[in-house]
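Hi! If you just cloned this repository, the fastest way to understand the data is to look at a raw example. We've pasted two of them here, unedited. The first protein comes first, obviously.
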Amino acid sequence: MSDAAQFAEAHFSEYLEKLKNLVRIPSISFDGFPPEEVKRSAEATAKLLREEGLENVEILSIEGSHPYVYADWLHAPGKPTLLLYAHHDVQPVGREEVWKTPPFEPTEKEGRLYARGSADDKAGIIVHVAAIAAYLRAQKKLPLNVKLMIEGEEEIGSLHLEPFLKQYQKKFQADVIVITDTGNFDVGVPTITNSLRGIVATEVTVKVMDHPLHSGSWGGPGPDPVIALSKIIASLVDDEGKIAIPGIYDEVLPLSPVEQKSIESLSYTDAIYRQQAFLLDGVEIIGGEAPPLKKLYRLPSLSVNAIQASSRKNMANIVNDSAWCKIGIRTVPNMNADRSLKLLCDHLKRTAPWGAHVILEPEHTAPWWTTNPEGPVFDKARKALTEAFGRECVVMGQGGTIPFVGPFSEALGGVPALLIGVEDPYTNAHSENESLHLGDLKKAILAAVYLYRELAD
């Protein structure tokens, strides 16, 4: 083990404490939450980067954006430059009563660190910082050049990233992007992500009358909008749970031989999915005969994210005037976003029963992304991850969406993007009781140390 790797091992607890300090800041970037906390998070991140020896540390923003943090170390002439990405903003906590520990008081329990942002994605910041510090403290230099971009609005869709990159394109130019904001196949299994699903979505309002009416006096002749919406929703899938919108699967890209081999090698069964997703006894696995991993990242999926008609608190014996829901489709490589959204919207209007009025409010779409995980950059990354974790690195897709990956790479001239991270199937990112496996955090830091060495060669 090199002296840099030895330093990372010996000082892991120090960087775990630095992670806890970042996690204590409730940097929720959503509207309705204090933007001052996101600013405070950016300031704490910038302070950490300065303390660890990075240079040219700046807090950057453009009009309307939450703050980004930039830093670099550029003293390795002739060596590659890595652009290291993570984000310091976090999701809202959700239902506080469901949390088993305070969401912004990091708590160690059974080898995991529980807190909002512990894994998604303040751990990504620490992976970069700890690996850089290991070289700077042990060897007084890095084997290559690094630039860091720590974003402050990833959780709200990176709304300003494209104009931000246009404004600061020269500052962020690099040879390879390393994005530490994804997950591993399982605890202890190092994973490179080579594809992400996109998303198209719309709000749906079904309206049948001007205002709610007494269900006894008026119920019967007039349609119930909740039932009408329910019939529309039910028409979106067939009896197997596959999406029943005509044409929705037409553009789906078949698995490549590398992806097919990866799925087969992982032996991921319906039983494993059932365990990791905490499905209740008797609940069926849906979606047809495809293996679960293919369903998770290379086939589209449909979800009703929220539904409302009156509320449990305000329930009364009425026929509601309207019902509302939010519906989204996770798209996969080769699916055209505009076409997919139109197919969804056309279906929603076409299947409305009883002449019910359907009002649609489509949201902005987020693109899917895929890359061929072959070539020297990916070979070296697999070697580094395998060495750090002590087992063979795997390559697979992720079912989630990171909308900026494709535009990010394109804005920098199509440079390779390496997606690695510290989440696992039990992390609960975006949900209550988010947590991080501490053993995987240590291995991820070591993997970054080895990655810098490998790419420098």
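Ok, and the second one:
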Amino acid sequence: MANRRQIKLGMFLRPAGHHIAAWRHPDAQADAGWDFSRFTGLAQIAERGLFDMLFLADTSAVPSDDMENIRHLAYVAWIEPFTTMAALASVTRHIGLVCTSSTSFETPFGIARKFASLDLVSGGRAGWNLITSANPLEWRNFGAEPQGSSGVRYARAREFAGVVQGLWDSWDDDAFIVDKPSGIFFDPAKLHVLDHKGEHFQVRGPLNVRRSPQGQPVLVQAGASEDGRSLAAETADVIFAANTTLDIGREFYADVKARVARCGRNPDHVLIMPGFQVMLGESEQQARDRFEFLQNLIPDSLGVRHLSTYIGVELSGYPVDGPLPDLPLTNVNVSRTKMLFELARRENLTIRQLYQRIAGGRGHFQTFGTPKQVADTMEEWVTTGAADGFNYMAPLFPTQLEEFVATVIPELQRRGLYRTRYEADTLRGNLGLPRRESRHVRPRQAARA
């Protein structure tokens, strides 16, 4: 059993829970978006459950101008994720710390410096979730309009990622001599100036942060479009996917792993971790009843607004119990929008049914049942080529997370599918990924290391 493939787990943090009405539940932490003690508590529960990483997503805008209808929504004000992760580094010891920063609004030098610093602060547990941004509500906060098509955004992101990774290799591991008698602090021969001149960026470098304990922080990417898959295959260590069925998961897994191989990379060194929302109960019916309780807390106006935001099309003028109208795809959330339209057509869903479908998981896989049933599902996904692990999404915090750690984790451990202790001091080590060697290290040096 010790040789069985180990499931990797991220814990997707979100104030109160991933269901859009979670904050209204009697057990919810409704103030979790700005009460750091709530984040501390969740992080420590996840670390007790031996999760590989915490993950915080981000957006640079309130989700809508329609304040009347989003007044029901809790996800409108929260602590900025990087600040949160830096603070969580001091109250956790093992769990990885991954958060989102957009290539649309940041600079490569700024991102490289921040995440290299977080890696030092946390002792080698940092990860950057790379995203591009097309939402006009975000762009206007930076005094601009969305720049170009998905292809243009991803071309910029590809160059951006390359610059960041180049800056992360500014210093050799042994560059800092710190020799007091001689007065020599570092070896100039082990400092490398990037001097990048590209289509989108000119960045000289070097980075003024020493090399990461992991070699480089873990790079996470979540694009599912053609451009997103290609970028992930070229650059990512971990891919957060949104796959609604096992078959879709298998297709995505096979496609991306093949792309990774074509890029000359080892497919085993790129982990695919789909979003995975779980509602637990002592029986499957109890789990579904618990979820239905949350569903009944959604006002129609919020559900329609939530769906409209996701697909980038205004739906408030259409009958909520009518079909999703035939509408052109927008430049917002291209892959997720396409997936939702296909889901609505395939299952003949009304607008209400579709917003209820994404109210908890936003298009990610959802499952309901006992700890054994949930463990069965996780085992099937991992052993049949649909996932290397999961980005766990609790519909309600903290109760569902506590229940998952107390019941599902032991069931996976009994099957030999999940660790019983942390194996390493770094996020890469716990994920089973090799340390990133510098591009400046000669092959013989790398082999000795």
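That's it. A detail worth noticing about the second one: The chain is about 40% helix and 15% strand.
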